[in-house]
Amino acid sequence: MKRRGCLIQMPYNSTLEVQRETLNVFFFMQIDILTLFPEICRAPLSESMIKRARENGIVDLRIHNLRDWTKDKHHIVDDAPFGGGQGMVMKPEPVFAAVEELRQASGDKSKIILMSPTGRRFNQQVAGELSRESHLIIICGHYEGVDHRVIQRLVDLEISIGDYVLTNGAIAAVVLVDATVRLLPGVLGHELSVEDDSFSSDLLEAPQYTRPAEFRGWKVPDVLLSGNHAEIAAWRKAHALRRTRENRPDLLK
């Protein structure tokens, strides 16, 4: 069945297809985002490392307008909640129709995610878990949420990126995709960059410096200029611990 609403797609390129087939031997991820606001996702996911990951055939990223799966002439996707209350709730019909169509290609391999403030807290560990999936279908919540039958019968995992409320789930979906895709093999220029990131261990990343060695009278710590790798590693570990204690003491618990 033909997919609708694909807003991020690369034109056919024979070299890219050869690269993709080669990478398929190791890893290839497909991501479909369902949202009422495709433009919110399009710009940030068309730049930097995500752009290169798409061009290199590591990830196939498609952004869909959920309204494409409505059947009425007004493309209605929401309705008033049963039992009363403020706001509107996203209807189940277009969500089920969209997900069922999108997961046909990969069958049981699809992981269905709902971006929701009531979901599991997103962190580096969750990003790592998702980076091992082959197909993510991400539903972006809006209004007062989605009909609970979507959560009960369709969604595998609800995810929240923090204890605050956003205008819509498309913003949160961008965060999730960026954090997940950068962990895929071949995305970063240096694979050890992932290991050195903050939250990859129990500590935040140590302070970083670059040229010039002195700026406005402020000097780079001498140990970083010494060339002594053991001392540099010890300095970084000590300052990572200090930074974590000052900024995120909860991580040390």
Describe the protein in words.
By secondary structure, the protein is of the alpha/beta class. The chain folds into 2 domains: 14-181, SPOUT methyltransferase, trefoil knot domain (Alpha/beta knot, 3-Layer(aba) Sandwich); 201-252, Trp Operon Repressor, Chain A, CATH 1.10.1270.20. Helices cover 35% and strands 17% of the residues. The protein has 10 helices and 9 strands. The strands form 3 sheets. It has a 5-stranded parallel sheet with strand order 2-1-6-5-7. A two-stranded antiparallel ribbon has the order 3-4. Strand 5 (110-121), helix 5 (124-130) and strand 6 (135-140) form a beta-alpha-beta unit. Helix 5 crosses helix 7. It is elongated and about 70 Å long. It starts with 13 loop residues before the first helix and ends in a 6-residue tail after the last helix. The model is unreliable at 6-25 (pLDDT under 50).
Strand order of the largest sheet: 2-1-6-5-7
CATH class of the largest domain: Alpha Beta
Quick one: biggest sheet? 5 strands, parallel
Shape: elongated
CATH H-level homologous superfamily name of the largest domain: SPOUT methyltransferase, trefoil knot domain
